[in-house]
Design goal:
Layout: H1 4-19, E1 30-35, E2 38-44, E3 56-58, E4 70-72, H2 79-88, E5 98-101, H3 107-115, E6 120-123, H4 131-138, E7 142-145
Parallel strand pairs: 5-6, 6-7
Antiparallel strand pairs: 1-2, 1-5, 3-4
The structure holds zinc ion.
Amino acid sequence: MPKQTDLDRTYLQMAELWGKLSKAERKKVGCLIVKNGQIISDGYNGTPAGYDNTCEVENKEFHPRAKNKLETKPEVLHAESNALMKLAKSTNSSDGSTVYLTMSPCFECSKLIIQAGVERLVYSEKYRNESGVNFLNENNIETCFSPLKPEVPAKPIEILERKPKHPAWLV
Ligand SMILES: [Zn+2]
């Protein structure tokens, strides 16, 4: 049986891959829901079924020097909402599950996570507003921040010192 930390990391990597399916340009987020060692749902940020999944519109009132002129459309569902709603349509249950998310949840989604009976949240990136994670903690849901990318630049790889090749070694 793999260690929990290894499982967490692998599920998060899978959630990140899943998030790549999102058509959002500003931020792609992926979510997996796992229960009893099985992935029971998945989601990424996108529009409800029947829409073309375009997630942003150009904000014409945006400050001209602003970095991002795109604005997320109000009908976009966040990855975790999509995964929970997919479960709502299935015969499975989120009660007692773990949510893997590539971005910490917003406050709105946190309410759904609590109400869906989720026991644990593992996430790899912090959303600018941490009110969602704080709300989960207040409601006794275990939250675990597990960054996939190092926050500080990785140390250069140490080059192992090799013994010089000496002719005497050659047989
Ligand atoms: Zn959300």
